[in-house]
Amino acid sequence: MAVHWFPSPRGAREGLRFLALAALTAATACSNGSAPTPTPTPTPSASARAGTTITVTEKEYSLALSPAQATSGTVTFVVDNAGTVAHALAIAGPGVSNAHTSTIPPGGRARLTVALRPGSYELWCPIAKHKELGMDTRLQVRGNGSASPTPGSAAASATKH
Asked: Which own/partner contact pairs does 100-105 have at CB distance under 8 Å and 24+ positions apart?
């Protein structure tokens, strides 16, 4: 003998909705009141979203780039003044003529973001005679296989850490 709880398929659906709601209510009532922690969705790192990052270490009287090469596109220079006097960073090359940081105090850090095309770029410290004293280097930028970015855009900031 079969027992039917619901006289029609519609009644069965309504009954299942009721049971689902009851189960959800019971689960919520038994929780500690905190929302469940969602599983994080993997996202690209900030450097992957923003382009290439190059660390520039400045001291009396040299510039060190890490890495010493880049691919065309958006490049952010993170400039650390490891010296005992103020420094800055300037860059010039294909499509870039007046990109520079503000003055960076000893122990300070600055960021300079520039759109670079394939080619050779000069980086130097524009303060006093620092360039002539050895704070001058070159960066080779190779193509990335896609369209070149629009040149000329640059953003800079400096902070003391």
From this structure: 100/126, 100/156, 101/156, 101/157, 101/158, 102/156, 102/157, 102/158, 103/127, 103/158, 104/58, 104/79, 104/158, 105/81, 105/160
DSSP 151: T
Secondary-structure breakdown of the chain: helix, strand, coil percentages, each rounded to the nearest 5: 15, 40, 45
Q: What distance, in Å, lies between the first and last C-alpha atoms of the chain? A: 81
Q: Which residue has the tokens 């060190």?
A: 64
Answering whether pTM is above 0.90, one says: no
User: What is the strand order of the sheet 96-100 is part of?
Assistant: 69-71, 136-142, 119-124, 90-93, 96-100
Q: Are strands 69-71 and 62-66 parallel, antiparallel or unpaired?
A: unpaired
Query: What are the pLDDT digits (tens) for 80-126?
Result: 999 999 999 999 999 998 899 999 999 999 999 999 999 999 999 99
